[in-house]
Amino acid sequence: MSLSERCSTGNPGLDVVLHGGLPPGHLYLLEGQPGSGKTTLSLQFLLDGRRQGERCLYITLSETGEELIKVAASHGWSLEGIELFDLSSVETVLGNDRNQSVLHSWEVELGETIRLIQEKIEHIAPRRVVFDSLSELRLLAQDPLRYRRQVLALKQFFSPRNITVILTDDLTGERSVHDTHLHSLSHGVISLERVTLEFGAARRRLQVQKLRGATYIGGYHDVTIQTGGIEIYPRLIAAEHHVAFSNDPVPSGISQLDALVGGGIRRGTSTLLTGPAGTGKTTLALQYIAAACARGECCHLYEFDERIGTLFNRAQSMGIDLEPHVQAGLLSILQVDPAEMSPGEFAWRVSQGVQEKGCKIVVIDSLNGYLAAMPEEKQLLLQMHELLAFLNQSGVTTFLINPQFGLVGSMDTGPLNVSYIADAVVLFRFFEAGGRIRKAISVIKNRSGKHEETIRELRIDSRGLQVGEPLTDFQGVLTGTPEFVGNVAARSLLEGRDA
After folding, report:
1. Which of the residue ranges 59-73, 290-304, 441-455 has the most confident prediction, judged by mean pLDDT?
2. 240-484: what fold?
3. Residue 80: is it exposed, middle or buried by C-beta count within 10 angstroms (0-12/13-18/19+)?
4. Where in the chain are the domains?
């Protein structure tokens, strides 16, 4: 089925998941617990129909028309031009002279409700209909067999009229977990879930369980509800994204650093910067960013740990001025709150930055902050693997900053070890010499080519990074407990350049 034969849902993210939208003229089930976003997504579906000049009808058995108008207003929407048919009260269905409750005379109430719905549809002749919700219809029917017959009758009523229908179900009432009757009747099934975490905002996700005769992106897709509607972040599939690019080295602006990594880190590769806190990992990434921005390349920095203001001040103290690059639109810095942003949303924002802005360098600072976004380690590692594959195939140079636990001696990489995923690994260490704490840098892995096997001193001062000569007079630097074995008189270490 071509994209021209799809009916847009009014939600760009969901349209991506559905490869363009829903096949028109069919009945679809939108299910989810209360608060998962069914009403908001349904309203977006009808608002898109209104924009296209189609007649739209919202049939509500669960909320009043006034409540729907307030929901729409909270997103800045007007429902003018959309027909609201309010069946949320018994009086609306049967008239004010009836005293029965919903649970009494249910055979009469159900039959009259269905008749009113059919009459309304015959009168309006809509192209899009939302029926909210099946839970109330289930209560009216009381008997499961009668309920299923009525749903089947509704489907048969809608089918010859070429109406695209969304039936919502809040999964409450007497519905059995194993009741798949609605799934079999529906042309497609979209499920919304709301998950409450131990800390932070509730997480929402969407899954397309079936879509007859059409392709879609399977699996779970993260969802957020914001002012203006539902944001759906399609699951990233790296295999669907590939651009031609040159595997040229990316200059850092420091010749000794480029020599250490075999002439420069290559485009389309990922580099892991690992070591204890304070050894210069972020500073090295900022050096590459500054050099790339000076060449006119777009860079994105995703900051999980450090405040942006502190980052600017620290960079300024080392002679790296980031402000002009931000003002020129070459550098984008996003402060990420792991308690609020899910990994799926993060991956989507990174991919959009690459595709829409042509980003050439991406820095993630740090993996510990990224880890805090989701407790399931295996899923997190898979998502990071997919994200890095996408960035590599897009020709993006990626820097992953991974603070290790501990300062000296043996150190732990933490619960997220991505060293086997990264194309290059740069290791940072502290060592002591001459009564002063110094820093060492070495490359222990580089898939894209040769690299130095030496360990060099790294110094950071007001003029930026300085890479010294190989530390031939020391042994045990990588262990964090080095030992000086050379000639004291011949020893040559870096000194500050501030004077």
Report:
1. 290-304
2. Rossmann fold (3.40.50)
3. exposed
4. 3-235, 240-484
Q: Hey, do 3-235 and 240-484 end up sharing a CATH topology, with the first three levels equal?
A: yes
- DSSP letter for 268, please: T
Q: How far apart are CA 464 and CA 286, in angstroms?
A: 10
CA distance from start to end of the chain: 71
10 Å CB burial of residue 21 (0-12, 13-18, 19+) is buried
Report the candidate in 1, 8, 92 with the shortest Cα–Cα distance to residue 49.
8
Nearest to 428, CA basis, from 441, 413, 411: 441
Residue ranges of E strands in 235-378? 249-250, 265-266, 270-275, 299-303, 331-335, 361-365
pLDDT at 90: 45
Q: Decide if 269 contacts 424 (C-beta within 8 A).
A: yes
pLDDT in tens, 81-104: 999 999 875 444 455 444 444 444
341-375 pLDDT tens trace: 888 999 999 999 999 999 999 999 988 888 877 76
Which CATH class name applies to 3-235?
alpha beta
Q: How many residues are given for the chain?
A: 499
- E-strand spans in 157-262? 164-169, 188-195, 203-211, 220-226, 229-233, 249-250
Neighbours of 193 (CB within 10 A): 17
Residue type, 403: P
pLDDT tens digits along 290-333: 999 999 999 999 999 889 999 999 999 999 999 999 999 999 99
pTM over 0.85: yes
Residues forming beta bridges with residue 299, ordered by sequence position: 331, 361
pLDDT at position 17, please? 97
